[in-house]
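Below is how a single chain appears once it has passed through the pipeline. First comes the sequence as given, then the structure the pipeline wrote out for it. We keep one example in the README because the format questions we get most often are answered faster by looking than by reading.
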Amino acid sequence: MPFWHSKGCFSLSCIGKEYPVKNDLPDVTVESDIFDVIVESDIVDLTVKNDLLDLTFEKLRQYTGQFSPDNLVAISQYGKLYRGKMPVGLNQEDETTKDVAIKILFDPRLLRDNKDLVRFEDELKFLQDPRIRGNPNLVKLIGYCREDKILGVVYDLKPRDTLYNLIIQDEFKWLDRVRAALALARLLNFLHCQKSQYLIRNINPAHIVLDKDFNPILFEFGMLLGSALDKTVSQREAGTFGYIDPIVAQCGAWTVKSDVYSFGVLLLDLMSKRVIDLKNTLATAVDLWALKEYKPGCSLVHQSLEDDPYFDRRDGPKMTDLAMQCMDEEEKKRPLMKEVVSRLEALHVVQQHAQRK
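Resulting structure:
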């Protein structure tokens, strides 16, 4: 699991606009083309209703087998994600269940303020924003728990594993890696380009799960910023070690280019089959490794991926250059996510294997 590092301090005023919770989304159909994307105009804007399931902590315990370690999927910056089975039968005799994922915030009983409560409420608002809900690369809420000091959310999700765990695995092939990178780039571009833009601020592979088809899904929103959200949460957090924009680490100044930096490191992870090791953080930080190894025009793609039948050797240097530009120490030299998407779409693997309509 990754290591978290906090530094920097700033705060913003609170904007009180709220989005009621709901769960009346139509199913989102993803086309067979692995490089298809759902754009803003494809997301249906429906009237928001307050019909998320209000669940007890005991129910969450039942769904997860008493929070069995075997069902633990991820430890994120602010919580733990478990696999679960939720009964959906019409009566007690009907044992039909559906796969869900359940996130519990880290032991709220130890908190000395309401930061986790604000994060919890902001996540509900964000995922029910009419502009956001239905995006295939964000979790879909179906319920929540707010019992005493226990805070939990329930997602309609069957995770294969975290991106962090899969990056080093041979089963995660080149085509799926490029597909995941492009999907995440499109997601960030979508969030950054909203009229009231959102910043994720703690992008890293431990906060992303892949489903059975290797589709990436973001599930951690503990440092999310957006105009519709409560901005009074302490800003003394700076994201995840190894993915933090150095500018943020120095002065706490967050912009969309901070997310771009983190995406650049994530892109290097996917290409090089490297992730940071908690037991040896400085020696295994992928951004520091890349700065030492990079030369203009080189490829940092792992040898085993270069041997993949879908790999085109012209793409290696292009992806490497893109990742390094995303991590440029001068913020103004980093591309916006719109440019990142365009450059990923121009890769030969995408052009050759995307069936354009």
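The CA atoms of residues 14 and 233 lie 9 Å apart.

See the next section for the split statistics.
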